Amino acid sequence: MRHARLALLASSALLALSACASEPATWTYAPAPSKTPPPSAEASAAPSEAPSGNVAITAAGVKFVETSVDVPAAAEFKIDFDNQDPGTPHDIVIHKGDVNGEVVFKGEQFNGVKLMVYDVPALDAGTYAFVCSIHPTLMTGVMNAQ
Fold this sequence. Notes:
With 146 residues, the chain is of the alpha+beta class. The strands form 3 sheets. Strands 2-10-9-5-6 form a 5-stranded mixed beta sheet, with no helix packed on it. The protein has a 3-stranded mixed beta sheet with strand order 1-3-8, with no helix packed on it. A two-stranded antiparallel ribbon has the order 4-7. The termini are far apart. It has a domain at 47-145: Immunoglobulin-like (Sandwich). Mean pLDDT is 82; it is low at 40-49. The chain is 14% helix and 32% strand.
């Protein structure tokens, strides 16, 4: 039974090919345009493609993908914050020491999916906590300024 189906399929394919070879093409196929808009230039940079010297932090699934990052001490730096949670607001707040420490930086809250670049002032050498102020029990990380 299986061989009969394969033979029928093969003969149908040969018949179709021979018909195509004898007749000139009168139509062409063009795929339908994509319904998905191209990504904006702002959101196109993946965290792994962060410009040199920038720190990449990603939010996905209401958590930080990177839970520990190293940043330069005593120098301004940028955080490329990639919020991959559609329609969900996130931000990054940096605390000196741990999450109960003094706030040394507070980034703008914004809905995903979007990439936001934060300009962070120079931090003294040491350990800092970074947290999403909207989801502080789910989204925390450690920042080492060295």
